[in-house]
Amino acid sequence: MTELTLINPSDETVISTIPATTVEETDAAVARAVVAQRAWARLAPLDRAKAMRRFADAVDGAVEELAALEVRNSGHPIGNARWEAGHVRDVLEYYSAAPERLFGRQIPVAGGLDVTFHEPIGVVGVITPWNFPMTIASWGFAPALAAGNAVVLKPAEWTPLTSLRLAELALESGLPEGLFQVLPGEGRVVGDRLVEHPDVRKIAFTGSTATGTAIMAKAAANVKQVTLELGGKSANVVFADSDLEKAAATAPYGVFDNSGQDCCARTRILVQRSVYERFMGLLEPAVQGVRVGDPNDAATEMGPLVSRAHHNKVASYVPDDAPVAFRGAAPDGPGFWFPPTVLTPSSPADRTVTDEIFGPVVVVLPFEDEAEAIELANSSRFGLSGSIWTRDLSRGIRVSRAIESGNLSVNSHSSVRYTTPFGGYKHSGVGRELGPDAPFAFTETKNVFIATEES
Ligand code: ADP
Predict the structure, then answer these.
(1) Measured from the CB, is residue 266 less than 6 Å from ligand 1?
(2) Whose CA is nearest to atom 18 of ligand 1?
(3) Is 3-230+428-449 assigned to CATH 3.40.605.10?
(4) Where are the domains of the chain?
(5) Average pLDDT for residues 112-136, to the nearest whole number?
(6) Is 235-416 in CATH node 3.30.1370.60?
(7) Which of 15, 80, 345, 373 could, after both became Cys, cross-link 6 (CB 3.0–4.6 A)?
(8) Which UniProt key words apply to this protein (predicted)?
(9) Over the Cα atoms of the chain, what is R_g?
(10) 306: Cβ below 6 Å to ligand 1?
(11) How far lies 222's CA from each of 21, 219, 431, in Å?
């Protein structure tokens, strides 16, 4: 493939055609990054911090522009896209403090002084998916740059436009040439080359578990570090003692946000049997009330799916004889529209319960008691997020501790705050992004001992 054809998911028009980066161009970008990184790492911490703040300011001035690009390229509702662009600015601002806070330690030892340093790894490859193109990009590039690294970023084939604009904004704000480069292109060409390139010392990947597994295996050949943020099939556990109205009213938000193209989506609603019928009665109008339509309309809550290929994949999980409890609305074509869909499969072994569908499809299953709720929640090979609805705070904490998952919320569906760590258990990933420790994940720890005793 020599070029990428970008399609607007809400009307299927061609936005543009852009050249796909080749292996040779990838190698040249890595060579530029090596040079830029050495100079960047030598800068005083305050100067790196100031450069990051100028980049954040540039993003702040471009929030509307970035949001409009994401609406066109990814079909995100404008309200969501504005939030995403603002989030990138906030992430940059937050990590602009990191260059001056990469504290090492002084460790008590006999015969001298022992200190640790956190040094940049070098060139970091960031490989991103199409569901949240700019926010997920910033979770990689902001802490990596703050820790003194250079970044070569490979955005997903379908959605490179906001990442490309962010690279321009970095340059316009004064970040050195070569320090943050975005290479649109194919995963099997550019992504694969970044994973095997000896000068790329770490890969921060977000995407499917299948691709993440392949990247981890390949990175092993070079003993290359990886962080992997992969799939999810998170549980939304609703106990009988919860505020059932609130649990039902918020459940669509927990799963249909971004058209369900969200690794944190609570795609398995587990409801205590004694309130199952009542909960379903409350959920139906909430699902039918989701406003699906024109992403440019500020009132829209759910846009289209990202592409025809992805639409076909999601649709394959809802054949004509699927156990559909009820559905919301969706516009007719053109556009990759799919209605919010609630399924009630008869068995927890059904593939709609086990697979990450990555669309606006949720399954509802009953449970008897707390033990069964935990067992069902943990029966997935994934472990990224989850919600627990209960008025019993002890139970909320107990069940949170028992669920094998990286991010849980009690009486809420909130998973992502840039100030707190984010990542998965089991097949949902390796390592954590965001939070105060993220820059340290882009460093090598060096220990130096200085003898003070005369021998
Ligand atoms: P999906 O299946 O949802 O499209 P992927 O996990 O395949 O998600 O894609 C996530 C990112 O990984 C994209 O940027 C894609 O181009 C990239 N990618 C795909 N295959 C590879 C690979 N073999 N090596 C490196 N990156 C890849």
Answers:
(1) no
(2) 187
(3) yes
(4) 3-230+428-449, 235-416
(5) 98
(6) no
(7) 15
(8) Oxidoreductase
(9) 23
(10) no
(11) 23, 6, 18
